[in-house]
Design a protein that fits this description.
six-stranded mixed sheet, 24% helix, 6 helices, 8 strands
Length: 228
């Protein structure tokens, strides 16, 4: 169990994207269904998409993380001060320009990932790694809750030697907070394939989605990002 000084992790079992007539308890629900590729209709009550700061930083950098469902990672990291943009997509596989359906099949080798553009003067890569370990369970191999498969693996895709060293150090720093060994892979970044348009900024456009409603608000509250 995660034991960060100011954070307490409580794991909720994952639930499906489709909304039943009666809401099941999280413990009885199904995982987000890989075959559900229907383009959702944005809720009329959805908050406006988060926009990057108008100020142009002197320097920007890129970080790429895989922490299970990219809807969750994107929703959390978009709210971090210093993060200028987050794109959901796929990395780590062999197939060129994979689709969501192909990645969900588990045969392409890709992980659901988020590519983060950030201002290093406002947020460090080390801090992003700290948040990465707080927003998911890095001790379950190829699994987050009920979402199972290599596409849900935990990974940090480094873009240079500095990020590789920082990622390794972040794992060592996070390990004492977990009872089980961290299985996050640290791998050189390969080509990033942005996911389909309807996946981008998914939570902002679909706040009533059952999966998002159960999974994302607790993460935001735990990290003190629910007011952003």
């Amino acid at each position: 169990m995660l034991r960060f000084p100011l954070l307490t992790v409580s794991f909720l079992l994952l639930v499906g994207c489709t909304r039943p007539a009666a809401e099941p308890a999280p413990s009885a629900a199904a995982p987000r269904h890989p075959a559900d590729t229907t383009v959702p209709t944005p809720s009329p009550m959805a908050p406006p998409p988060l926009e990057p700061s108008a100020a142009t930083p002197a320097k920007t950098e890129i970080a790429t993380f895989a922490a299970g469902c990219f809807w969750c990672s994107e929703a959390v990291l978009l709210r971090v001060d210093g993060v200028l943009g987050v794109v959901s997509g796929y990395m780590g596989g062999a197939l060129m320009n994979p689709t969501y359906e192909q990645v969900c099949s588990g045969i392409t080798g890709h992980a659901e990932a988020v590519q983060v553009t950030y201002d290093p003067a406002r947020v460090s890569f080390a801090r992003l790694c700290e948040l990465f370990f707080a927003l998911h369970d890095p001790t379950t191999l190829n699994r987050q809750g009920n979402d199972v498969g290599t596409q849900y693996r935990s990974a940090i895709f480094f873009h240079d030697a500095g990020q590789r060293e920082a990622a390794t150090a972040a794992i060592a720093a996070a390990q004492p907070h977990f009872d089980a060994p961290i299985v996050t892979e640290v791998t050189a970044a390969s080509r990033f394939w942005p996911a389909e348009a309807y996946h981008q900024n998914y939570f902002a456009k679909n706040p009533d989605n059952r999966y998002c409603r159960i999974m994302i608000p607790p993460k935001l509250k735990k990290l003190g990002l629910d007011g952003r």
